[in-house]
Amino acid sequence: MAKKRPQTKAKPQLIDGEIPVVGAREPCPCGSGRRYKACHGRAAAHAATELVHRPFEGLPGECDWVALRELVPAATAELTLRDGLPEGVPSVTLATVLPMAWPALRRDDGSVLLGLQNDTASGDISRDLADTLLRALEAEPGSPVQGRRAPAEGPRLQDLLDPEGTFQPVVHSGFEFWVPDAENATPEVAASLERANAAAIPTVRLSNVDAAYWCETPEKNHLRWVMPHPEEQLLDALARLHAAGRSSLGEGTRLVGSFRAHGLTVPVWDLPSAISAKDVEQPAAEFAERLTAALAVAEPLTPEERRARGGLTNRQVTLS
Questions:
Q1: What is the β-pairing status of strands 203-205 and 143-145?
Q2: Is pTM beyond 0.85 here?
Q3: Do residues 30 and 19 touch, judged by C-beta distance below 8 A?
Q4: How far apart are CA 177 and CA 95, in angstroms?
């Protein structure tokens, strides 16, 4: 006969808000006697796989958040916390990338750098970043913050950042912002800095329009412009302009397609190598006016406009 399992005294039940995240095969902290993955871990696993399509929705500068996450090599932006800065934390700065791909870094002076272009453990980038930020605020000065799986019910960036705050990215030519004194960086950080600088594509944020980024590549330059408009409405407007021959940014430029990234659409133009970021400022501002007018048109697309739309959507790529 099979042995009877010894009877164990039931542990006190914890309310859901008090149950920490543990390993999938460990006993659930709630005291049920089951493994975590078969108990409260089910909700955590569901949260870890459910994709939030617009993780930055509701944040000031959503379009720039998307650009810094997917398109811009080296940039920073000061963050304003909803409840103000904790004692001993002079500033919180978002950075596209940190040395050794650290999720966050608490500097010696107590300031915090939060990395944006890291792999995340769940389908909600905002929740993962918020968890990293909270841990960075409490980390010892001079130490990096390692990645982990964020609690399923933890706060999101929208809960931590001031909704009335500004979001003004500063694009850098390299990653010297990693350290206060790059010349005296440790060998490990110096090597990481050198590799990152070598791979960075020259990028400039336009000043006349929002969330438009010029970049230079060996064969041609590009303009990648993150737009907040609903995708279907935006594609219709772009198709109307394209069919009318009004979608370019000047001689030799061409609207070639778009990306989807974190719930937003990013039209992309090819530019001749001779066209600098400064050269495209005024054409971009003029295009923004044409686009506003096209977005207001409610009539169905003409056959020519439908063909133009099909060409644009056939060249669309989803990044996230």
A1: unpaired
A2: no
A3: yes
A4: 9
Pairing of strands 92-95, 104-106: unpaired
DSSP secondary structure letter of residue 151: P
CA distance 41 to 51: 17
Q: What is the CA radius of gyration of the chain?
A: 24
Both tokens of 12, joined, read 């006190």
Q: Give the tens place of pLDDT for each residue, 113-169.
A: 999 999 887 899 999 999 999 999 999 999 999 998 888 889 999 999 999 999 999
Query: What's the Cα-to-Cα distance from 151 to each of 121, 124, 185, rounded to whole Å?
Result: 10, 11, 34
Please report the beta strands in the chain, taking only residues with DSSP state E, as ranges in sequence order.
Answer: 75-78, 92-95, 104-106, 112-115, 143-145, 170-171, 203-205, 212-216, 221-225, 254-261, 264-271, 316-318
Stated length of the chain: 320
318 beta partners: 260
Q: Express each pLDDT in 186-218 by its tens digit.
A: 788 788 888 889 989 999 999 999 999 999 998
Backbone angles phi, psi at 75, to 5 degrees: -160, 160
